Amino acid sequence: MERLTLNEKLKILLQDYLQSLKEIYPEELVSLVLYGSGASGEFVSEHSNVNLLAILKNTEPETLEKCLKLVNKNRFSQLETVFFTEDFMRSSSDVFPIEFLDMKENYLVLFGPDLLSNLQVEQKNLRFQCEHELKVKLINLKRAFVFISRNNAALQNLLFKTFVSTVHVARNLLRLKGSQPAYLKAEIIKQLTPEFKINGKSWEMILSAKNKQIKLSPVQTKALFIDFTKDLEKLTAAVDTL
To answer: Which residues lie below 8 Å from residue 169, measured CB to CB, with a gap of 6+?
Structure first.
């Protein structure tokens, strides 16, 4: 694990976790992959989970139950592991193109063969998932606004939650446009602003407020919510043309 950019404490943690998995699954464990911020160099110990993909020969409930004690240990609470079989992974790239592209973008194989490098993700499936998720978010925002528009805390919570997931989806619109998307949210916003004519200043304010760098008044929260909803409409319209 000498290539990892994590601190020594987390390197040791991953090594111990891998060793435990190998002991629990001496025959079933095929591969273990670190992906996301831990593999990209953007990992922040206080704010990031360590994302892992474990490939097993089977993921029957009885098999998964073997690692119950391991994954629930306080020592490994920062580790977020998804368990797939190789067949499931290959047959699911059409359903979860965003998730698999995220994995393929930043990953490091800790054990076993590299099963991600040859995984194919078709652009038409990526466009469909982006359109579906953006439109669902837009519907939910408008529906919720009717009920919580005068509740500043609820409105702010919904805005922050939707904002984070929207940035995640929107960066894939940049992929569909043929661009290499940035990793950090602030940089993604800079890319999205000229490409899709969104209100970049509003998005930057939402990001700052979410990160507790600024505090929003009820008037500001409502204005940002309305601006963000309008920008989400622009994105849903744009994805139809890609």
So the answer is: 98, 129, 130, 133, 134, 137
**Full domain range(s) for residue 13:** 8-111
CA–CA gap between residue 233 and residue 55 (Å, rounded): 38
What span, in angstroms and rounded, lies between the C-alpha atoms of 75 and 67?
Answer: 14
Hey, is 182 helix, strand or coil? coil
Same domain, 53 and 75: yes
Please state the length of the chain. Answer: 242
3-state secondary structure of 2: coil
Residue 79 domain-assigned (yes or no): yes
In this prediction, residue 5 carries a pLDDT of: 60
Q: What distances in angstroms separate CA 104 from CA 48, 84, 92, 193, one per listed residue?
A: 19, 15, 14, 25
Predicted confidence (pLDDT) per residue in 129-161, tens digit? 999 999 999 999 999 999 999 999 999 999 999
3-state secondary structure of 109: strand
pTM above 0.85, yes or no: no
DSSP labels, 54-95: EEES---HHHHGGGHHHHT-GGGTTEEEEEE-HHHHHHHTTT
Which residue, 111, 134, 161, sits at the end of a domain?
Answer: 111
